């Protein structure tokens, strides 16, 4: 190839390091987004067989966890906590309802608002879910301080990235 070295420089030449931040790069191993993506896929894949045993998907598990914390939340409250829009959350809730794990009711004080409540079958999954949580904590092999620090860092990334999209940016589709 003409004028191209065998090992091209993958760091942007326009990078001016004024702070102690990573240089821009297009090398896959340099990408935080890929590390997050790979970790997310690995964690979700580890959850899958355990959740299959109790008959729920990972997104359903997230909804159930919120309801185990506080039953009777509205669709809007659940969506806000999970960062899901109603177009994504509604079909998920319909499947949980069809499985007999939750009920949906219009709120008497606001007919536009729908409240989600656990059924007895939904409540009965809390104990097996606690075992799933214990299994995942063991798989991560982090001590309590590392576990807390990792959650803090991930939440900081989420807040910073979501906050940097600007006031007029619309949320992207849920992954």
Describe, in plain words, how this protein is organized in 3D.
The chain is mainly α. The chain has a domain of 118 residues: Arc Repressor Mutant, subunit A (Orthogonal Bundle). 54% of the residues lie in helices and 10% in strands. The chain has seven helices and three strands, in the order H-H-E-H-H-E-E-H-H-H. Strands 1-3-2 form a three-stranded antiparallel beta sheet. Strand 2 and strand 3 form a beta hairpin. Helix 1 runs antiparallel to helix 6. The longest helix is centred in the N-terminal third of the chain and has 23 residues. It is globular. 9% of the residues are buried.
CATH architecture of the domain at 43-160: Orthogonal Bundle
Treating each run of at least 4 consecutive H or I residues as one helix, how many helices?
7
Derived from helix and strand composition plus strand pairing, the structural class reads mainly alpha
- Overall morphology: globular
Termini separation: 40 Å
Strand content: 5-15%
What composes the largest sheet? 3 strands, antiparallel
CATH 4th-level superfamily of the domain at 43-160: Winged helix-like DNA-binding domain superfamily/Winged helix DNA-binding domain
Mean of residue pLDDT? 87
CATH fold assignment of the domain at 43-160:
Arc Repressor Mutant, subunit A
